[in-house]
Amino acid sequence: MLLKVEKLTKHFDGLVANNHISFDLAEGEILAIIGPNGAGKSTLFNLISGMLPATSGKVFLEEEDVTGLKPHSMAERGIARTFQTTTLFDELRVMDNLAIGYRVRTRTGFWDALLHSSRWRREKEETEAKVMEALEFIGMREYAYHFVSTLTQEAQKRLAIGVALMSDPKIMMLDEPTAGIIQDETDGIMELILRLKERGITVCLIEHKMRMVMDLADRIVVLNYGEKIAEGPPEEISCNPAVIEAYLGGEHIA
Ligand SMILES: Nc1ncnc2c1ncn2[C@@H]1O[C@H](COP(=O)(O)OP(=O)(O)O)[C@@H](O)[C@H]1O
Ligand SMILES: [Mg+2]
Fold it and tell me: At what angle are helices 118-137 and 153-165 packed, to 10 degrees?
């Protein structure tokens, strides 16, 4: 198992946002986490990626207990994430956002940069090559010099995935990668997620658009009111009575 989540629990005052949630993430799969608004999906991502401390429970990455590690340590170990609302630098260009995503992991310090040390030069070239590769991968080469504020929502979502990619992650956690995008414009994002998988990156995805979940996911975990109520392949989940009840109040998912 690449990632193992064991009985993760999070209390906010009186509210139980996650109650003993357990699941595994196998290398190379796309796992979707679904559930109604407020079910605890983003909280679960926050616990796994170290943004919030868990009340109890454990997280293992490749057998190593990584519970309670800070976000940067999780990033160093290969867990990257995007957020429900994008966290790009609006006033900077596309390529700058990617470069920043990479430079946070390089070692060049202030004096290296000031003195144009050989390390500075080497890392500058490395960064430029990485940025070009990411631009190509997310299909945004012609937008390299555009300012983020001028991009469509869809392009911003793709760029956010590109930024996450700059840390060479093993696992990408995507929190609603198509939030705010109309159904017709989700194909590009779907295709990009499939290419992450082809590249060998394991994907854990929170998503509301059912067609996308059913097409993309190898497995689905369903949360409702902080509880895991189901887990299984899409065809099983789509006719699971508890899921249908929770999710659509009795109607069929498809
Ligand atoms: N930082 C927080 N402080 C207090 N309550 C929170 C916090 N984050 C989330 N919650 C609550 O936890 C529950 C689950 O939220 P969330 O994980 O964002 O749900 P989802 O992503 O499934 O829509 C909600 O009731 C929400 O209001
Ligand atoms: Mg959420």
Answer: 140
Which protein residue's CA is at the shortest distance from atom 24 of ligand 1? 38
Tens of pLDDT along 155-202?
A: 999 999 999 999 999 999 999 999 989 888 899 999 999 999 999 999
Query: Is 216 exposed, middle or buried (CB count within 10 Å of its CB: 0-12, 13-18, 19+)?
Result: buried
Burial label for 47, CB within 10 Å (0-12, 13-18, 19+), is buried
Q: Is the CB of 38 under 6 A from ligand 1?
A: yes
Taking the C-alpha atoms of residue 56 and residue 59, their distance in angstroms, rounded to an integer, is 10
CATH number for the domain that contains residue 93: 3.40.50.300
Q: Domain range spanning residue 100?
A: 3-248
Query: What is the C-alpha radius of gyration for the chain, rounded to an integer number of angstroms?
Result: 19
What pLDDT, in 10s, does the model give residues 28-82?
999 999 999 999 999 999 999 999 999 999 999 999 999 999 998 999 999 999 9
Q: Indicate if ligand 1 lies below 6 Å from the C-beta of 42.
A: yes
Question: What predicted TM-score, i.e. pTM, was given to this entire model?
Answer: 0.91
Number of domains into which the chain is organized: 1
Kindly state whether residue 254 falls inside one of the protein's structural domains: no
Considering every ligand atom shown, identify the ligand nearest to the alpha carbon of residue 41 and give its number: 1
The runs of H, that is alpha helices, within 53-208 are 71-76, 94-103, 110-115, 118-137, 153-165, 187-198
The residue behind tokens 């170990």 is: 77
Q: Is 253 a member of any domain?
A: no
